[in-house]
Amino acid sequence: MAHAIQVHKFGGPEALTYAEVQVPAPGAGQIKLKQTAIGVNYIDVYHRTGLYPQPSFPFTPGSEGAGQVIEVGAGVTDLKVGDRVAYAGNIGGYASERLMPADRVVKIPEGITDQTAAAMMLQGMTARYLLRKTYKVDKDTTLLWHAAAGGVGLIAVQWAKKLGATIIGTAGGAEKCALGKAAGATHMIDYKAEKFVDRVKEITGGKLCDVVYDGIGKDTFPGSLDCLKPLGLFVTFGNASGPIDAFNAGILSAKGSLYMTRPTMGTYTATREMLTETANDLFDVVKSGAVKINVTGTYALKDAAQAHRDLEGRKTTGSIILVP
Ligand code: NDP
């Protein structure tokens, strides 16, 4: 019998209930996956609370996992039983077994464990599109990355370092700042203890940043805009502290004809080609050792609520996973 976490109504971590489930045989174009590791991401919190509502109950949260193909549906030709695969972006991940569209999984290369794959697909592909597509970061780029010791943050800092950028990271507390520094940040700001806008001005000698990556939302807005050069790009890609309230777009002109985008991985990995290009780039930087995936917490699937408490309580660093 398979098991899954189910949400019957939006709420706090206690809304995550553990249940026995029956997973049907895969339909055409699908595979059945026996999962060995499941990634925990901030988007799972938004799904659980209803910030990103789901159309029906109960639903199983989780948008990332890895494991073995145990059944193959009609028409699936490039995957077979026993293949090790991983995915990001298809809700239903908090489960010991699940169905997946075959064209949304990728084979895990030799040398990358299932646990590493489950920890990195969503956060790593996000770091990749943000640094390589949303803004093309290079050695001339000065960037600000909030929550630099978090899951996406630690991967992004290492990747941006490989690209040669000047990286200013923020994090809550000295220990997290030390982690960001060790990952390759040029400067770290403890934004619980210091005003990050003032520190960015000081560090850059008033020149400010080309791009600000902000997954915090409410608490760092509009301060993040004050860290940008004229014509700079504000990338608001998450809401860990809550969504940004409606604002007058005139603020973007007043602060220097700024650009703003609210990207999502779905758009950047929409086609099979985009997905494989993004995943392969991620596999390459991980296999080369340029980016290390820091799995700092492993929880039993049935303890998903505790994983959420720790993530929302800002107790985690790097990536955390569930094990069925
Ligand atoms: P993290 O591991 O980064 O955890 C969130 C971190 O945000 C915390 O550890 C904390 O770090 C910081 N934070 C600041 N304020 C708060 C607050 N009020 N409550 C909780 N945390 C706070 O999570 P992920 O790596 O999974 O995700 C990071 C962000 O990226 C999220 O906003 C997520 O939604 C977004 N995301 C967006 C994607 C996209 O395509 N748009 C895809 C993937 C992720 P500290 O203590 O250092 O402040």
Summarize the topology:
Layout: E1 2-7, E2 16-21, E3 30-40, H1 42-49, E4 64-72, E5 84-88, E6 97-101, E7 106-107, H2 114-134, E8 142-145, H3 151-162, E9 166-171, H4 174-183, E10 187-190, H5 196-203, E11 209-214, E12 228-236, H6 250-254, E13 259-261, H7 265-268, H8 272-287, E14 295-300, H9 304-312, E15 319-323
Parallel strand pairs: 8-9, 8-11, 9-10, 11-12, 12-13, 14-15
Antiparallel strand pairs: 1-2, 3-4, 3-6, 3-15, 4-5, 5-7
Overview of this protein structure:
- Strands 3, 4, 5, 6, 7, 14 and 15 form a seven-stranded mixed β-sheet that branches. Strands 10-9-8-11-12-13 form a six-stranded parallel β-sheet, sandwiched between helices. Strands 1-2 form a two-stranded antiparallel ribbon.
- The longest helix is centred in the middle third of the chain and has 21 residues, at 114-134.
- The chain has 324 residues and is an alpha/beta fold.
- The protein folds into two domains: 2-121 and 293-323, Medium-chain alcohol dehydrogenases, catalytic domain (Quinone Oxidoreductase, Chain A, domain 1); 139-262, Rossmann fold (3-Layer(aba) Sandwich), CATH 3.40.50.
- It is built from nine helices and 15 strands.
- The protein has helices spanning 42-49, 114-134, 151-162, 174-183, 196-203, 250-254, 265-268, 272-287, 304-312, and strands at residues 2-7, 16-21, 30-40, 64-72, 84-88, 97-101, 106-107, 142-145, 166-171, 187-190, 209-214, 228-236, 259-261, 295-300, 319-323.
- The structure holds NADPH dihydro-nicotinamide-adenine-dinucleotide phosphate.
- Residues 41-43, 122-123, 126, 147, 149-153, 171-172, 176, 215-216, 219, 237-241, 263-265, 311-312, 314, 316 line the site of NADPH dihydro-nicotinamide-adenine-dinucleotide phosphate.
- Residues 41-43, 122-123, 126, 147, 149-153, 171-172, 176, 215-216, 219, 237-241, 263-265, 311-312, 314, 316 line the site of NADPH dihydro-nicotinamide-adenine-dinucleotide phosphate (NDP).
